Amino acid sequence: AARFRLFRWLLSLLALGTAAWIAVMPIIVWHFYQLQLFTAVWTIPASLPATIMVVIGTFKILITPLLPSVGLLLSYILNLCALSLSLMVSMFARIPFSNIVIGKMPFFTIAVFYILILAWRLFPFKSKGYQFVYPSLIILLFIYAALSKCRHNLNLAVLSVGHGQCIVLSCEGENVIIDAGSITKSNIGDKIVNPY
Fold first, then answer.
1. Mind listing the pLDDT tens digit for each residue in 9-50?
2. Most buried in the list 149, 158, 166, 167, measured by CB within 10 Å?
3. pLDDT tens digits, one per residue of 155-186
4. Is the separation of the CB atoms in 60 and 72 below 8 Å?
5. Which distant-in-sequence residues (6+ apart) come within 8 Å of 30 by Cβ?
6. pTM of the model
7. In whole angstroms, what is the distance from residue 34 CA to residue 104 CA?
8. CB within 8 Å of 191: residues ≥ 6 apart
9. What H or E segment, with its residue span, contains residue 35?
């Protein structure tokens, strides 16, 4: 019975993560021009350090004026949770095909997505033959979004080159490097910029 409860709890976390991902995915695509495929799965392990950070962070804010040494100890716990969350983000970012760059999505596509979600909720089909109409249309919209990549995207990367940064701009196969000098590191081009 305990194993079954744990499985149900993990399944409900996955369902919650999927629902949240579906709700905000068009907004993320609109602003960042990319789609993260494993966000719902990533929610399960990330929920533990994120929840601990929210609870302990709130407690730290309240307790620090009264007991600064306890606040300092709590900050170490918060730093460990933040580090674990950062490592999880880095790990999931390295998974192949977890990130699909779509480009600037037309507002029409995003509006159709939210209209379909709203219609699915307000006007559901009752018969079994039509139950999958809205999900099918949403999946087709996902496929359309993934296949209709904008080819004129500007990519910007900021690289740390020691005492400063190097900015790499890429657009339509052309690359521009801005300010790749450093007073603390030698041979910046071979060591940092070229591997990128």
1. 888 888 888 888 888 888 888 888 777 878 888 888 888 899
2. 166
3. 777 766 566 666 777 776 777 777 655 555 56
4. no
5. 105, 107, 110
6. 0.57
7. 9
8. 185
9. strand 34-36
